[in-house]
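Running this now, will post back.
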Amino acid sequence: MSADTGASPAEAMAAAFERRAADRELVIGVIGLGYVGLPLAEGFVGRGFRVLAYDPDAAKIDSIRAGRTYIRHISDERVSAMVGGGLLDATTDADRLAEADALLMCVPTPLNVHREPDLSYVEACARTIAERLRPGQLVVLESTTYPGTSEELIRPILEGSGLKAGIDFAIAYSPEREDPGNIQFGATSIPKVVGADTEAERRMACAVYAPLTTVVPVSDLKTAEAVKLTENIFRLVNIALVNELKVVFESMGIDIWEVVDAAKTKPFGYMPFYPGPGLGGHCIAIDPFYLTWKARAHGEQTRFIELAGDVVTAMPKRVVEHVAEALSTARAKAVNGARILVVGLAYKKNVDDMRESPSLHVIRMLRERGASVDYYDPHIPVAADTPEHPEAAGMVSIAWSPEALAAYDCAVICTDHDAVDYAALAAALPLVVDTRNATARLDGAFAEKIWKA
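Update: finished.
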């Protein structure tokens, strides 16, 4: 017990931490400055906290220091404002992590080639922290993962420092809820779920996030980890459902888009989801299978999740089949030898992120059938190298012009970016296969050119 207050060491640590949080005296360390970490750093700077932003990627740090963005939906002006206010200190020096009072881990959690969790980034980050961990610090994982990660992986690594979790330092879990490209919600308007295994640790984590946004505390680490998976599994299952309905209704001559638009007028008991060419991104296409893997370790099955995964995985192939049918029917032409333009390489509209994008699967399958395929994406001038799709690495977005568009037999809209002129696209090409209903508002004069897929 503390000699002066009668409080336990954990209670005394939490009380001191809460006071410093309330007075904006804490230094917030953000580890990993991607789509999650950079907006989080911005949010804390905007609330008056000093932020130590760490990333081993020197190019990112150089960009931040120069006030330049490397994420499309975060402007140069926003980055400059962070740096110019004097509260953000960006570094590649891991030894400086000891300066931070709270360390927020925002690192990737992909799947490996066997669709099993790849926690190598989380583990490496935890080891980096452990080598510099000091008493009184709070460590929070924000990356999506399976229930038990913080307890079973991170805690033992951190306690390898000789310090004890819950007594000398604190561990919490608060899942990121970023929605890149969504200007309606950001780090300071999306509630933060916070879980920890002791009251003192939970108080410390809540004290960090409360100045940022609404805090939703839950009972322990595993529950908080389960919350994030539940959110993304909900979306996966419903997106798979609407894609399956699309296939069924299509065979009946029913337009799924019209169905959803009418159904969403019901003010209760229904939430609209929309079909597309498949799933992509760093969340919905990956995160649900973390639970599938963990469930097997407990002798349980996740049949809904796996079925949903099967449905959405099949969608790129269906798109290619639609392209073949459209070319044959409307142009009396085979896919083999056709010149095809894929419109949109990003996994969702208005972002520059092509991770797990279904467009990559569509490009590969069309090429396998003998088509010559290019792409246009106003936000991705050059395709990045991805382990799953090395064939797409280095592809360059075509220059947009009526003359360039007219050289193609067919365009396939895979991403419905707002910056694309769909009327010009339909005017220039003889055939457009639309997987996103992006051409729905075009003049009826183009109707004979447009095939929904």
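The two ends are 67 Å apart (CA to CA). More later if anyone needs it.
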